[in-house]
Every structure is written in C-alpha cells, then in structure tokens.
## 1
Amino acid sequence: MSHSCRYDQLVEQAGRGPDRICAVAHPCDETSLGAALEAGQRGLFQPILVGPEQRIRALAAEHGWSLEGLELVDVPHSHAAADAAVEQVLSGRAGLLMKGSLHTDELMQAVLSHQGGLRTERRISHVFIMDVPSYPELLFITDAAINIFPDLSVKADIVRNAIDLHVGLGLGAPRVAILSAVEQVNARLPSTIDAAALCKMADRGQIVGGVLDGPLALDNAISVDAARVKGIASPVAGRANVLVVPDLEAGNMLAKNLSFLSGAESAGIVLGARVPIILTSRADSSRSRLASCAVAALYADHLAAHQPVRA
C-alpha cells in the first residue's frame, strides 16, 4: 500500500462504523477544536466539547466553524474539563476520550484518579502508529509517552496493549520486537534481560496474541539484511510490526527521528484504560490527528464487541 493511503484507509474504515461519542477535554485552541470537529464531520465520532463554553464558541466563530447540534459541557478551566470529560465516560455517555489544549499529565491525572477513574487491571501505555515511507507496513512504537522507566511487569502490559491494538484494528497477530542495543543477552544491559524474560513469558502463555523476539537491535528488527548478516533467524527479525523500546527516552527519540528525519507521520493512542484515549500534539499534521481519531474509534468498536479479558 502506498505511503499516502495507509492512514486514509483507517479513516475511511472508521467513518463507516457505528455511531460513537467522544468527550473532548478542553478544546480551547485551533488545533484541538479543529481536529475534534473534523473527526465529527468525517463520521469518526460525535464530539462532546468539555470546557469554558464562551471560549470554545468564540474560537469556533473566529474560524468560521459551526457548533450546531453539538453538546457543550461548560466548566471553568482545564482541570475541571479533564474531570468532567472523564465523568462523561464513567456515566456511559461517551466511549472515547480526547485530549484538547491541556497538558497530558493533567488529563491522565483525571483518568487515573482514585475517585472512580478509568483504571483497569492493565497498566496504561501509549502506542505511536507510525506511517514510515520506507517501511512496508504500519509500525507501532511503544511506550514513548507514558511510562518513563518501565519494569518487567509494566513492559508485559505494554506488550499486551500493543498486541490487542494490532489485532483490534484488523491487522492480525503482530510480530513484536523487544528492542535493546544488542541482540544477545548481556547482564550489564538490563533491557536485554527484560527482553529475554518477555519472550519466555510469551512461550508460557503469559503474553498471547503476537509473536515475540528479543533482544533485538533496531537494525535487526526492521532490516531483513541486517538480521541475515547477524545470523538471526526468527519470524520477527527484519519484519517487526511492533517495536517495544527499553524506556520512554529511547522511544521518544526513535519516534521523533522517524518523523523529522524520515518523513514519517505518527498517530497516537493511549491504551489500558476503560476506553481508548486520543493524544494529539500541536506538531502533528492534520492527517496524523485524524488518523489518531480513526485508530481510537476502530479500537473502541473492537473493545465493545469483544470485551477482552484483562490479563
């Protein structure tokens, strides 16, 4: 599939789905309000706009956008908007949550609050769904946004969340590469020990739904030639769909490297809560923001249909 078609196909597929409602927390800048309204126009979901109503209406008027037929929940500031948007999900009004112009930490604090937040037994994690021009398939990178230094149990949930998303989008069982700097287990590199343990957990049925291999260096994960030179024979090496990074810094650098040096586009979604959470950045293109909405919408349909058992 050509580079330009991958996200378009997701958006088209999501636009044909059932009616969905998304609570949008504090859409008080051009980027976030515009993305929510465009997603609504494309049939991805019906947004509920949660924030200071006068500010949202003034912003829409400034850009000539119609809010006709849309529900607005008037709250005074971003902190209240995060809480009220989560409440829309808890009450069953909304099946999706989207970040507006507030800090990610502020929204996630409301998501994780003990006063009936959106926690599940699964650890919350983020996945970048990257459309890289030089790679033949969509490439998932996780976790580059939520968990800073995940331990083994957190990494196991990060892997489970990514597998569930890949399957839930209809992309089949993913080939999951657990990344490190080298492809051999080295006691001085803790990420190699974690990688080996995750693969053994998959062997024992503690992680299901995907094929795991690791530790793998990045070149061995995505280049068949590099894997062949190193003598690595596995279903994953050179053909990974999911790249599991050792920590947030490595993941963040990898994702931004692909975006800014390789011309990749990146959609982003938070998994492991009761509903998918859409995180977009002001640096994202319009296509990337729409793709994030489409991915979340399609995955929400999957969760509603399958109600997967939380490991």
Note: The radius of gyration is 19 Å.
## 2
Amino acid sequence: MTENKLKIAFLTSTDVRDKRAWSGTHYYMAKALERNVGEVDYLGPVSLPFLFFLGKVISFLLQKIFNKRFDYTHSLIVAKVYAKIFSKKLKEKNYDLIFAPASSSEIAFLKTKIPIIYLSDTTYANMIGYYPYYSNLLKTSAKQGNEIEKRTIVNSKLVLFPSEWAANSAINDYHAEKSKVHVIPFGANIDEAPKNDLISQKKKTDKCRLLFLGVEWERKGGEIAFNTLVKLNNSGINTELIVCGCIPPKKFSHQKMKVIPFINKNNKEQYRQFEQILLNSDFLILPTKAECYGVVFCEASAYGLPSIATNTGGVNGAIINGVNGFVLPQNSNADDFAKLIAAIFRDDERYYS
C-alpha cells in the first residue's frame, strides 16, 4: 500500500530553483518539503515587468521631489494582480495546501478554499524605519504595506516565523490569532550537512580567522568587523578577515583582509569554495545593524563556526548565547567585539564547548 502524499502548491513570485532567491531559503525549503512531506509544484516565477517599471519610476520621482520612498512591491495594485495570476494557476490542479514563504503580496488578496501556510522572517510593521529600504516611506505606501500584511495573516491558516520578535509583531501589530502563529527556527541553506567527524576534528591554529559574510557592508556592520580585525592584531593576536559577498569602500584596506566579492551557490565550484571558507574560519563576525533573522548564522553553525553578532531584530532566534555563538548589545563597538573574540579564542575549553 502506497502512502498518500500531500500535494503542495509552493507559491512565490520568485524562481524557486534559483538559490539566490531569498538567499536560497525558497530553494532549500522546497527541497525539504519534497523529501519529507509530499509532491511540490512551483507556481513561480511570476514577473510583472510593466508594474515594477512603473513602480520604480514613481518611487524615483517621489524621492527626488519629496524625499519619500514608495514600496511598489507591497502596493495594493501589485497584490491584486498577483491574486488573479495565482488564482488561475491554482485551478490547474487539486492541491491539499499552499505554502507561501515571504509571499505576502502574492497571497493577500488570494481567494481560495485551499489552506494557506504563510511563512516569513518578519512583518511589514517591523521593517518600517528598520531597514534602509523601508525608511522614509510615503504614508500611503506604509499603509498599503500594512494592509497587505494584515490581509495575508487573516487569509492564512498558519503563520510561521523563525523568531519571537517577528511572531510578537504579528500578534501585537496585526492582532493575529495566537493559535495560528508559531515560531519555528530556520535551518541552514546548504546542500548537505558536513559529517560530524569533519566538524569535530576541526581545530584552531595560531591564527584567528574571521569571516564577514554579507552583501551589504554598511547594514551588516562591516566597519566594526574591519576595526575588530585591526584591534585584534594590535593586541597581539594574529588575525585575518575574509569579507565575502560584497566589496568594502576603498578606505577599508588591510594586508590581512581578503575580499571575495560574490559567490554563486548555483555554481558547483563556487559552492565548494563557500563550504571551504566556512570550514577554514574560526568565527563568523556580523555586527549587523538590522537583521530579520540571519540564515547565515545557521550555515555557520552547521560547520561548527561560532557566530558573534549584535542583538537586533530576530538574531537571537538564530544565535543562542554560549551554544552556537554570542550576541552583543546593539550599541557594541569594535572594542567589545575584539574583547569577546580574544577571550574565546584564547580559551580552548570555551571555544570547543
């Protein structure tokens, strides 16, 4: 007798097969569902070139004239167009459930009897004034974004977040039913977890190897990471820093800093390079100013790499102090990061515990 598998509609406007979509989270969640839950149909990608072009033009003009942003990706017209497109796609096959990660605009106005499971790393309310892109929003833009978020929560059978920070916002800002909101930490976006033997045999050397992994130097706290490198070397600890995913401003230059501007996880050779970087590092340092969660912390943990970050947003949902890293207060500076890293690096029992 064969087991009946659930038929799942994976509803996103992105190309789920592309590991760059939502930092690979869409791809790896889809694969996990295929392995463990049932049959998965990808309803994306869906592009709205004209609407997005028009939205960019409007946003550009508003910034020039009023110094205000218009978030066209969370506009009512875009959400309503998505609803029509996905409604047609859902009629092509019988589904048991809809899984919609980071797809609030796509499902806010979707009318269907199929249960919707909505997953995100934050809410729109949390983003306003927190991330640079969501700062200085036009009032009507913020209003539309919040309406889309509220409709999405109401429209969903289950609402999943990886942190209490995000879940509390859904309950407090959008009055979501507590019974439908659940906190489920995300996992690492990797093809295959390294063997335990490989991680347990990993040893420090006399060199402290720091890894800064992020595409936004400013928001991720690149300057603090750089100054931490300088302070550790000045204190007598031979330290190097690998910056991966972005190019720092020219003024941040050091003989012990190596820059890898971009790694494409879709490319097998570059993916192996990414794995080796994690294996050959001692700490992930990310003094981020704004972070919804940080799957990068999960990836670091999978490779036995402790994370040192600031306690902001949903970071403490991914890092447990003393277990897979440490979070420092938001106002921490390079002195604080250097002091903590030096103390852990010099104490083998503390580092390996």
Note: The longest strand covers residues 208-213.
## 3
Amino acid sequence: MSSETIETSRGFRLGDPQRTTDDFGRLMEACQRLPAVPTAVVHPCDEGALRAAVEAAERELIRPLLIGPASKIRSVAASAGLDIGSYELVDVPHSHAAAEQAVRLAREGSAEALMKGSLHTDELMAAVTDRDGGLRTERRISHVFVVDIPSYPKPLLITDAAINIFPDLMAKRDICQNAIDLARCLGIEQPRVAILSAVETVTTKIPSTLEAAALCKMAQRGQITGGILDGPLAMDNAISEEAARTKGLTSPVAGQADVLLVPDLEAGNMLAKQLTFLAGAEAAGLVLGARVPIILTSRADSVRTRLASCAIAALYVASRRGAGR
C-alpha cells in the first residue's frame, strides 16, 4: 500500500501523512497569557521526562518542582544538555518517596498539578489515591485523552482509557462529568458526549447499552451536567453524520461528538492507540477527579504531546482558579 491518502466511503483518511489540523498548537497558544502552573514533576530521572518538564517550563506552561534523587536528576540534565539551575529541586531517595512528596506538596497548595516522570503509573496513582494522605475527592478519578486527529475537524476526548478498568454505572457518571468539565475548560461550551457500544439499540445482551441509556436519563435528571449525551452509539455513528443518516438515527450527538465515553479501559486504550498508530493522531492526556490535575505522560509520547498535556493542565487549572476552586 502506498503512503498516499486513501479516501474511504465514510470520508476518513487512512495512511495520510499530511496533518490538516493543529488542535494542540491552538491549545498551547491559548495558554500564552496564563501564569505558569506550579507543577510537581515526579521522579524525572530519564531524558524524556526531564526534557518535557524543561521545555514546558521554557514555554511558561508550568513552573516545575523537580522531585527525585538530586544527583541522578543532575546527571541526566548534564548528559542531555539541559539547564535546570533555575528550577527548584527536591531531593528524595527514590521514586516512591518522590510520589509521596509530590502528593504532600499538592495537599499543602505548593503544587497545583502533578506530572509523571520516569516511574510507573501505578506507583504514582497509589500515592494519589492513598486514603489517609492522598488527593481523593468525592469524584471518581479518571483519565481523559485529548486527541488531535488529522481527519476530524475538532479535538476528540476519549475516556477512560488508563485508570478505571471495568467501571460501573456510577463510576461512568463521574468519568463522564470529568470529561465534560475538561471539555468546557478547553472552550467547548456544551460538549456532545457519545456513549459508545457495539450497536445503537438497547439490548440486555450488551450491558454497555443499558448503562448508556441510564446515563442519558441521569443527564436528563441533572445528575450529569454541562453536556449533551446520547447513547448507545456505535463508533461510526458517533463521528460520521453520513453513517448516522444511513442508519436513520436522529441525534444531537451523532456525527458531532466531542467526547467518546468508552465501555471499559480495554476498548478505550485500543481506540486511542489505533487512532495514534493507524490514523496519524496525537493523544495528550490528563487525570482528573483528584484535588489537582495529573499530567500522565507515557515513555512513547513525543515532546509535542507532552507539551500539549501540560497546556491542557494549565487551561484546566486556570478555569478552576476562575471558579474559585
């Protein structure tokens, strides 16, 4: 197969190397007048993690507090040619202590965001969710991908693809609300939420269709606010108006989705990675529902994607400041 654009019957492009959107660029531009966010960077002990923090600081997206073994961080900076002399460095012996210290700083108000460095996600989230000293709120913690897709005309949020494995109905309520809140911080006044399943009809044979219907009713009753929900919707109906018309669907969401609420982590993770590796998408992300947002980067992320994640966090923090939270 050649690398030329292949137009499909649904209007999507496969194998297209040409990016026609720059959603991440617009997000970073929107942060230009915002103050840098004090951010606890947890165990930035490899070049990718440290470089992301330094470049985000140079763009004034974050004001990093580098937390980890000081000698190791300085060694990484020296070998990578990174100047960290102007940043606060908190010396702790190992990654576990770095996660605990970062959470402590967030609880004290010294950090308004956390940023994952070169430690495992589970280790960081264990400190965040600790019942005694963590950052829990009444809201379920969840992850949201913000995806810039060349063939889609606007950012697409996917949730939850990283934290909640098999969320129940009430967890999905919080996952949905977290995503709506983030979308509104990004300038989407009334996000359209497509609750995904394999089909568009409610059937007892597919539990996710029942939960989709219940979530829509919860939105009608004010248990989910700020967005327009519809579901169950199959993926094609959620993002293609033509597909929805073909199936005779009348929906305020079909073909116009801003948020895709997936049935479980497996489905969401596969969807996000398929878009990234097969459709040329870029996926930034944020963990919400804790006292502060958490920039949850991956070792596979590009510097641009990490910067976009920092920009999303900055916009979210600015919105919370404006709301007095």
Note: The mean pLDDT is 91.
## 4
Amino acid sequence: MRPKFFNREHTRTAHIELDTKRCKACWQCLENCPNQVIDKIDLSWHKHALIVAPQNCTGCLKCVHSCPYNAYFKLDKTKERTLRQRTLLFRNFVINNLLLFSGLAMVLSGLILQVGFHIGGQVNSQNFGNDRQIRAFDTKKTIWNLNYHDWSTVHKVVIVIFALLMVYHIYTHWNWYKGVFSKRLIGKNIQAFTLSILFLLVAGTGIIPWLIDLSGNTGNLRFVLIEIHDKLTLILIIYLVLHLIKRIKWFGTAYAKLRNK
C-alpha cells in the first residue's frame, strides 16, 4: 500500500485546503474533525497534518475554525471553477496551436518533398504491362540548406508528432464527438469532422509507407499509399485554411483571456 504522505490529494478536499507550511503540529484539527479526513506526519524532523480521506470531507469547516495558525482555509468555489476553466483554456490553446503548427509543418515539408525534389516521368513496366509513374527524387538538390533525406526526416517526425497530438485532441474532445453523434449534429459540424478524418488519413498514409520502408518491403502498396497521401494532402490544405478562417476569432479571444490575469 502506498504511504499516506505520498497521496497527491494530501493538502485539499472539495471544501478546504491545507497549507502545510503554516501547520505547527498542534493536532487540534484532528481532534475536531468528525469524519477522520485528517491524519498526521509525526516524525521527529518532520511534523504536520495532512489530508488522507478527502472524499469524506463534508465542508463542516471545524478544522478551519479550530486551527490557531490559520493553516486551513475554505476554498472559493468560484475561484476554483475559474481556475479550472482557465487551465482548460490554456491546455486547449496550447494543443490547438501545436496542432496548427505541426499540421502546417507537415503540409509544407510534404509539398517541398513532392514539388521541390520530385523528378517524375513515366516508365514502361514489363511486370504489369502498362506505364507507371517513377517516384524519383533529386537527392543532390538542397532547399533551405536541407537535402531530400533531411526533409524526408523532418516530414516523418512531424507526422508522428501531429498524429500523437491528434489522438490527444480527439481524446480530450471525445464528449463533444459523442454529443454530436448522439444529437445527430454531424451535418452542422461536417467541416470539423471532415478535417479530423483527413488529418488521420494523411497521417496514416504517411506513417504506414515509412513502416513498410523500414521493414525492407519495396512492394507497390507503399507507392500507392504515398500517392494517396499526396492527393489527400492537397485536399487537407483547403480544409485547413477554411478551419483557420472559422477559428481565428477563437484564437484571438483565447489569447486575450489568457493575458488577463
């Protein structure tokens, strides 16, 4: 069993908070607490009260009134709610910005690889009896002092980062997604849903060919997925621009609220 003093909730309940620096270990709070919410650390070199059963606290405030050192104080519910809202806003602001910049970096690096280094052309394939596109690249060329392999690494890393952020974004907004489905509001949010699906498809069709390449497989599936990835990226750019136009007011409002302490 984990020792009580390792409990992360040892300084607060839903009603009160304990400042352990003010506590002088007089133990009056323990004597007055009717619900055994409070316990103590009673070592010769370290003594103070601590919260061990925050779920049992009913908000009677006997600990607040009995403490002669003002180590306990009542939580301001409005302040707590505002703090939670501000924390949520900050988290969403950071995640949305990271998604924005990683998405733009993914699109930009992909376009540089496709347009900047791609040679193209057609070659007759005896195995398949028709023409197929050559996916050849000028590996000696550099763009912004980075060659093809450098940009390829950047693109792959950005795809992984973006995919992780997208999974986290969907996880934190899962209730919204469920609400839209349950209330049949997909039609009113079709742009957001389409963008989410496009992001996942672009990330998936970018990561899977990479994994195929790492496995040493040079089959046609890899090239097909890369072609799909390239085409979906062009559609993604359009939806990304539309989404930014629609959300730019939110970014401005969120930034203004976070600046006002």
Note: Helices lie at 28-32, 62-66, 77-116, 148-172, 174-182, 190-214, 220-259.
